[in-house]
Amino acid sequence: MTPRRRLTAVLTLVLALALGAGCASPARTPAASPGGAITLGFSAWPGWFPWQVAEERGLFRANGVNVELKYFDSYTDSLNALATGKIDANSQTLNDTLASVAGGAKQSIVLVNDNSTGNDQIIARSGISSLADLKGKTVAAEQGTVDHYLLLLALKKAGLTEADVKFQPLATDAAAAAFVAGQVDAVGVFAPFTTTALKRPGSRAIATSADFPGAIPDHLVVTRDLLGRDPKAVQGLVNTWFDTIAWIRDHRAEAMEIMAKRAGVGVPDYESYDKGTTIFTLDQNRAAFGGDLTASARQISDFLVASELVDAPPPLDGLFAPQFVQAVQP
């Protein structure tokens, strides 16, 4: 599995958009017409591997949508592909979607795949048993990622700020390695790098995404072009997702095999990651679009501005498209 949730990709995104602003529209692979092929991207995260099940079980076709499913080894590449119109849809975090929109991308969220409920963690060495104990300690995380965001939320809960710790910005894999090597006192990482970090003797998670419900949501995001050009296809994608989740529930063993293979891990490892991800039901989707997502978007926007990842809060007009989950037949 490869790193996901890399908000630093916003720099690449803004450059790509700026280069395209003074010339023809960026190169893309659009559907030839309504009903044509839709290119759907996804990458390594337990909440997104159900798309692999959908493809292998023919559930896209069953819902009348022609999908070219594209797996990205690099999550960053999937973000840039959607932002520049090279794919029509992608599964990505709310943080990254907001960063893309702030950079000028025209995107809409049509589905909540999941919330991280434990797979993002702040892990500390032996002797650090609480968030308050982080004061004055060196903490590593990838700057601008959701795990950096989780660290700030955790520090705030303990009455601290980033200024109270020695923040060490490192890529997620490097941060986990530095922690195991004893170079830092704590680290913010997501699965599977949580497994790596916990190899340090005596280490333990002192905060996880489970402590902050709704803070790290993941979504199906589509281009505004697709939304206007072929809303029927968008509905087909959303319908397929819920059919897939139902199929996984009824055929769990087979589904675990499919998803673990796509992830490149054994089923037992995949089962452990799966437990830290809460797949949203239809009712949870409808409730989230009813208000929770807007509140989360505003909070994350503040984080993006404060972290100087964007110059101004991203516009929220048109960001959420709840009509598709509303139209799903239970």
What would the keywords be for this entry?
single chain; about 325 residues; alpha/beta; D-Maltodextrin-Binding Protein, domain 2; six-stranded mixed beta sheet; 14 helices; globular; signal; Sulfonate ABC transporter substrate-binding protein; ABC_SsuA_sub-bd
Structural overview:
By secondary structure, the protein is an alpha/beta fold. The chain is 44% helix and 18% strand. It folds into two domains: 9-115 and 216-327, 3-Layer(aba) Sandwich (D-Maltodextrin-Binding Protein, domain 2), CATH 3.40.190; 120-211, D-Maltodextrin-Binding Protein, domain 2. The strands form two sheets. The chain has a six-stranded mixed beta sheet, sandwiched between helices. Strands 7-6-8-5-9 form a five-stranded mixed beta sheet, sandwiched between helices. Helix 2 crosses helix 10 (231-250) and helix 11 (252-263) crosses helix 12 (267-274). It is globular. Mean pLDDT is 88; it is low at 6-33.
